[in-house]
Amino acid sequence: MKQKIRFDGIDVAAMTAQMRSTLLGHKLANVYDGAAVCTSTVGADGNSGKSTFLFKLANPSTSAPAVASNGLTKSDNESQKIEDSQSTVKSESNPPTTDAPGTVSTSSTGSHHRISMLLIESGVRFHTTNYYTVSDNATLPSPFAMKLRKHLRNLRLENVTQLGNMDRVVDFRFGLGDRSHHVILELYGMGNIILTDSRYVILALLRVHEYAVGRDVGKEDGHDETRGGADDRKGDVKVRVGNVYPVTYATTMGRPSDGSSNEDHVGSRGRNLLDMTDGEQAYQWTKGELHAFLETQILQSKVSKPSTKKKKKEKDGSITLKTLLLKPSSGVFHYGPSLIEHCVLFAGLDPATQLTLDKLEQVMPPTRWDSLLNSLWMEGSRIISDFTSSETKGYVLYRNRPTSQVDSSKTSDWVKNMPHSDKVFEEFQPHLLRQHTDRPTLVYDTFSQAVDEFYSLLEGQKRAMRAEAAEQTALLKLEKI
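^ that's the sequence the OP posted. Answer follows.
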């Protein structure tokens, strides 16, 4: 199974709800670059933490010292590194306990601390973390981190909002009124972090890009995006300093329903599935989608260069049921792959069912669409509503590592003694779904704790394996001397 490496829509919904219940009112003390701290990962995309930032938030409800004008307490100015180093928490401090076969439960030591560290990684994730220490190198903060410090220090986190229709875009609002600022985190495509003022005028951002108007760019993710500078055609909406953040292009907010310019969100061949009342309408919609998909395949085969190495695959216009529902035109693509798969299984259907025009009536007749529509309406809504609860638990799904790999004589004691060295982490979830039945699971008190543990141990195992490989290489060189 492919390892999960970034948030989907339901992850964002669950984490946003938890942030609102635990971090609102906290005052920003400082911002650190991911490359300058040892966090639970230093850039999940291998960029050495250049797109990862750590926000230090002080809880005003505790007996914490007053925050000075520079955003730090008096003791912070003298012993910042010591305090952060002591804040590092090792996973051994919360040993898991077995609740049931295949399920392990862990407990946190407390949910309200004087200092909370919010980790934000562009295009990947956001959560509080306990795995961090300030590096010894006295490197200067990046220009973007300096901008964040300049505009956000001493402001309270007033709101955390998931924009659009469960889009992977999060708005962190610091401060009130005209002094407020927004940090907008984009978790789709290449990702982005944007700092704006109270009127959403962009003050700083990680990367400049643009949204194409009326062109088929990036539609598989529900966003019309091109790289900045790639196309300067008239009408394109640019995301750059000085412009207003284009929230209606970055999210599904304010999308038109006539299929004129952003037809990928509502379907150019009719209403989406959540607007339909019976299986016959969904059946006719599916026929239209399959017709369009087949025409696209034929057109692509005509313009593509013929391959001499491999036999050309016949274009039959087939598509799996899960893939069809993940198309933006379905109206439920914002559910994400996990929730869509759950709804399909809940309706008694197979997500991998192949749909073609000639066999559609046998494979997915209107009666089966009736069951699926009911599942998408009722079960999908129920799961999503659960995420509004602040008591949402977190789950890490894994598979057991083969005993031969764990006990291998070539495996160093360092790797063997690492937490969960006998497990291969596969994904994190805020809710156990149908497809997760009977899979071994680690259960955590909060979703944020589960995500933090997932990335921390994942990165720890990677670093241990790299160190072990370097050690083996050095031993081989010594043997040749």
